[in-house]
Specification:
It is a single chain. This protein folds into two domains: 282 residues, FAD/NAD(P)-binding domain (3-Layer(bba) Sandwich), CATH 3.50.50; 144 residues, Elongation Factor Tu (Ef-tu), domain 3. By secondary structure, it is α/β, with parallel strands linked by helices. The strands form four sheets. Strands 10-11-12-13-9-14 form a six-stranded antiparallel beta sheet. Strands 6-2-1-7-16 form a five-stranded parallel beta sheet, covered by helices on one side. Helix 1 runs parallel beside helix 11, helix 2 runs parallel beside helix 11 and helix 3 crosses helix 4. Strand 4 and strand 5 form a beta hairpin. The protein has 13 helices and 16 strands.
Length: 441
Amino acid sequence: MNDVLVIGGGLAGVEAAWALANNGISVTIAEMKPEKRSPAHKSDMLAELVCSNSLKAQRLASAAGLLKAEMELLGSVCVECAKECSVPAGGALAVDRDKFSALVTEKIKSHPLISVECREVTEIPEGNVIVAAGPLASDALAENIKALCGGSLSFFDAAAPIVTDESIDKSCAFSQSRYDRGGEDDYLNCPMNKEEYETFYNELVNAESAELHSFDKKKGVYEGCMPIEVMASRGADTMRFGPLKPVGLRDPRTGHRPWAVLQLRREDASGTMYNLVGFQTNLKFGEQKRVFSLIPALKNAEFIRYGVMHRNTFIDSPRLLNSDFSFRGRKGLYFAGQITGVEGYMESAAAGILAGLNMARYLKGEEPIKLPEITMLGALSNYISNETVENFQPMGANFGIIPPLDELIRDKKLRYEALAQRSLDFYKKLLSEERRGEDEE
């Protein structure tokens, strides 16, 4: 069967290669380490965990737990190795990172259909290729990808937090577009009176920021993007003339213009998630939760993504990729991992699995796997390929991107358990049908 080149030996790359090889297709992984490293990498092994050793929650009634359960059903090598190398971490799946990378490397290199070449790829060659270069792709490769994508390559310096729609206190918010332009109430407005604003402001300017990696500092991540806490430090009213300006808005509860207004913008077409407009931030996650929850409408907010600031290269996937991670502009080219706009260790690995499985099906002349949005991986793959998504930013696993249940379950734990069970029921049916088809052949 045709050879496939996988560019990158991180979590997405090894998963893609594993899926291909287990489908009888020979694979070459091109990994630039140890010949060349990004400033973030220290180990010569594959599947290196650069930051945390935690792969997040294990419980099924969590987005991270459901994603790992789905990956396991699809034959994930990373989840298998993580469980073998786990360390005590409460309800999370955490690993001895050196043992984890060593075990993944051993499994990959011992597979008869996988070869690993230590070399830098500076441009995407012709043929069947999966690009899993990660967010810290080398400069030469990044420029080549940028040219291929027509300039649609983002150097992600900042992102605002995202909250779930159901956790917003609608009694303290109102829908209206500023100046009533456009005919639709596109924004959800979270007003503050003078006292509420001053409390929020004082806590914000005294909140603790996260420390940037040294390689992020070198890239000058603050250029062109101003964290909300930096803006606030320039004066008590600076935000009120920026992202919190109340001009053109009227609170229906009072009939007057608020002192300050945070606007929330839909993150997806269905309106299950909202972005805090203009709230790029480098505050520690706990501080974001504490300070931003001082805004009355967000007092019970569930944050499904906190604001971050760091270097992260990703393509404009909604305009460039299909939900099977294939590139719309060229047959036989797939992307996988964080470069597609999924965010997180397991999200990247899961994207690698789906890219590898679909490349295998492409080479065999079969239809791609298109997972429905009721599954966590299906929801992620649909998000990154959804052309209605504007201002595209990376997204991790969360229940906010999955369609709600037909029945209303108020208890969050029971609701998440039901969402997870719905997903796993789909996988069981899918795998059962595939086994039946193989038996008939």
